[in-house]
Request: fold
Amino acid sequence: MATDKRVIVVSDLHILGDAVADGRSHVWRGPDIFDSACELAWLIDCLDTAQDGGAGTDLDLVLNGDSFDFPAGESADALIGDPQLAAVRIEAALNRVPQVCGALSRFLDSHRLTVMAGDRDTQMVLPAAGSRFVDVLGAREDAVRFLPDSEPCRIGRLWIEHGHAYDPWSIIDENGVKILRVMQRRDEGMQLTGSDLRRLCILLKGLVTGSHSTEAHEDVYHAAAGRLLGRQDVDVVVFGHTHRALQVSLPGGVYMNTGTWARRPRVLEECLDDADDAMEKFGTWIESLLNGQFDGWVCPQLTYADIRLSRTGEVESACFCEFRESI
Reply:
């Protein structure tokens, strides 16, 4: 590494990839999961002029997986078998967020972007999808690199990985079963589509207040980060996937999770416990989401990691940050 380097890591945007042009759209009846396009565009535009950025500092932006959220009715295998459909999904997602596209285009005039695949957007590694992404942004091909979900992003002594490989259970499926049971009990005539369940489950993931099971789930990621920090060439580990934003010191270095920029409703543990009225409370909570009633439930937290490295690749600082309009 010839120059000082600054790396910004953002994960789990979940920009919807539904498209209507091909007739295969899966429509979500509620609001978009990602509705912070203006804030994200502001962050990207401000990065290279941020305080203490340093004129000689090399600046990289890493989108650490699940930047996009493809329709639940189409498996990754289906889109991999149809590369052009994957490209259509990417373009549809980018068309939803013109502010972000503009900011990325400006950023890529002089900086680099790494797009890592997560468990919800594995199709990003397809050449057709990557080419469409670059074309929509009007960027140079060498300014963007794409990494599959099986490959970490290594920058000096920094290790970045989406993290779903360490997930000990399918929390999406577990919550999906509960949601379906609640809604069928409350209204026999109401049917949730696969896309509805997908959106609701992503909202729920890692957001149960005071849940011991969630804390135990997070311990798995602490252990995985600890193993990586036990290597001789890693100072900081950054994951996404869990939607739980945090920074903790572990033996050997620092583990960070960049959280999510998706809508984050606060789920009370009493909605998910074994009490007789828990399912009714949970059903009420789900109904409020479907009706777009987020007051009192949504806890926005637009978080990212800001990491500085020396010329030789050592991590000099690792800061957990929350978006604000003056960076």
User: Anything to note?
Assistant: DSSP finds nine helices and 15 strands in the chain. Residues 19-31, 170-177, 208-216 have pLDDT under 50 and may be disordered. The longest strand covers residues 315-322. Residues 164-290 form one domain.
